Amino acid sequence: xxxxxxxxxxxxxxxxxxxxYIAMLNWCFARRHGGQFILRLEDTDQGxxxxxxxxxxxxxxxxxxxxxxxxxxxxxxxxPYVQSQRHAQGMYHQYAWQLVEQGDAYPCFCSAERxxxxxxxxxxxxxxxxxxxxxxxDLDPAxxxxxxxxxxxxxxxxxxxxxxxxxxxDRLRGQPVTKQWAELDDQVLLKADGWPTYxxxxxxxxxxxxxxxxxxxxxxxxxxxxHIWLGERLGFAIPxxxxxxxxxxxxxxxxxxxxxxxxxLWYKAQGFLPQAMLNxxxxxxxxxxxxREFFDRxxxxxxxxxxxxxxxxxxxxxxxxxxxQGQWLRELDDAALKAEIHRCLDERLDELLPLLRPRMxxxxxxxxxxxxxxxxGVSPSVADLVPKGWDAPTTARALETLHKRLVKAVSKExxxxxxxxxxxxxxxxxxxxxxxxxxxxSALRVALTGRNQSPPLFDTLxxxxxxxxxxxxxxxxxxxxxQRS
Length: 485
Ligand code: GLU
What we know:
Layout: E1 4-7, H1 17-32, E2 36-39, H2 51-63, H3 83-88, H4 93-102, E3 105-108, H5 112-124, H6 141-149, E4 155-158, E5 165-168, E6 177-180, E7 188-190, H7 198-208, E8 213-217, H8 224-233, E9 240-244, H9 264-270, H10 274-281, H11 297-303, H12 318-331, H13 334-356, H14 366-369, H15 371-374, H16 382-385, H17 392-411, H18 419-433, H19 437-449, H20 457-464, H21 466-484
Parallel strand pairs: 1-2, 8-9
Antiparallel strand pairs: 3-4, 4-7, 5-6
Helix pairs in contact: 7-8, 10-12, 17-21, 18-20, 19-20
Bound molecules: glutamic acid (GLU).
């Protein structure tokens, strides 16, 4: 058997480090076993998908060096590799109706209103089962088909068993994964607009693309009974399913933008080297048999062993990544290091030029004029942080309030990190708190840059970026508080 594995991202946002992690595992597994690694775009949720996101995901994975053998950009024998294109060819519809013919699925005519009433009632009754009440499950199949053919709005739902227990042994987990069938919803397979849901599309594609192993994140464990059952009912060869731990923030919560940058392109823009990122990803839940922490992709492919993967939720530790990055950078030869320095500057220069120009005398001034943008942290003094008319406790309180407000806005994703939006937020907080803009602006400037003078404040805040700016604010608050005691 030739191993065939895949990464199947949904192009709904920025390229995520979690996608890179799963892609890396699949890529290693394929290369280790002389198999193929396939990239498939799962874009059935058309309202949320975009071409820009798809392009970014492909370019981020390519940046990491995880080259695929078949995919949307390079084609292959089992294409197309984009689900919307497969849908246009009618690939999913026929399988949904095959299931209906076999009695394994059924058309459901319930309206959205009815579904929300049922749900509201279940919630009010504190029902142990929240989901579709299977109202259409036992309609006469011939009548149901006739209604669907006559154009009555419907979805197709899976008619999974109502009793018994599903059980599966995932090679990475000691205990078999079990689930009561009665707890599972009659999953929608084909939506009212004729588009397949992820569940149907993924099972069909994995089979038609000859996928032998599905290595994916554990968030899909709950869907496993549905996927295996669907594959069996459709007469497909069932791939081996392997569920790996989700990446975690240092506090063990599921990795999130709020606590860690999750966009791969952010790391690229910050100057992280792809070989450092790959090395770091390879240390998550996995280790070198000799406990080495610094190795290249050839070595990774030599030592990779899926069975040694720890599924306990590996922590994405930025400090560790930065440490690995430093090692890789210092290993570069002179020419490569020079090229890297140029690349880092070039990438940000267009954005920084308007901020730097008014203060420059020599080209080399860029080094010290923008140090606070590139550096990891700044070291403001308490004397500089405390503006005229305020004392340390007042400044600490104000910066803390501002920090909280920014964190909240960022986590609710209602703040685009842009100059005008940032300025509006800070100014409205000034009004609300009765602060003099001059004072909070001064404290903010020093907290961000370590200096009393900088390019325009909100351009600076924008250029530093949320992932550096927020920790600097928090550090300034801490420093001021220590001062008090
Ligand atoms: N499209 C799914 C995702 O983006 C893929 C899940 C799977 O690998 O089956 O997470």
